[in-house]
Fold this sequence. Notes:
This protein is of the alpha+beta class. Helices cover 22% and strands 26% of the residues. A four-stranded antiparallel beta sheet has the order 1-2-3-4. A three-stranded mixed beta sheet has the order 7-8-9, with helices on both faces. The radius of gyration is 20 Å and the shape is globular.
Amino acid sequence: MISPIPFSTPTKATFATFPLPGVQPALMDDEGNELEGNNVKGNLCIKYPWPGMARTIWNDHQRYIETYYSAYPGKYFTGDAALRDAAGYYRITGRVDDVIIVSGHNLGTAPIENVINESSIVAESAIVGHPHEVKGNALYGYVTLKEDLSPERQEELKKEINDMISDQIGPIAKLSKIQFTSSLPKTRSGKIMRRILRKIAAGELNDLGDTSTLLNPECVEEIIENRL
Length: 228
């Protein structure tokens, strides 16, 4: 829906570029106002219907309305946050529901993961929240490395990761726990199953749901065994 036209639209790293013909996106603020012009960021909505859009949820049309149309009446809310740069290019910055409130601060997980993934030794990462008796929530990081490290080097890397986060985002975004993993649980389409990671971080190990359909179900037991 927002994509470069091959051999026509100049591309830009990390940007989806322009909406395809007939698709009219809108960036909305938290008060329900559409953000006009460029160099703005907000919640991504679609103004009008488009070919192939979902029209209902089977046997539960009210849920469809509440999920996609209750946040911004009259507009389809994608659930994504996005920005529009000076040239009008769109960049999807992450899911709106991937926001964790830590000591009253709303922290998006995508920017934190981007900082972690800048490390040359990190393959990928996933941040989730877990209950904290003082902060309400704290950040739990699952980090997959490109190579095995000694326990001493792992402890050094944990400090390096938090130093990077503190420098680029702020001390409030530092991780309270960092667990190194051989892989992260994913669907067969490659999506990280954060729901499972959240439950493991919170210690809700008896309510993980069916993990047999994952691309790599064996990693779940490994993550549970090494849970911090």
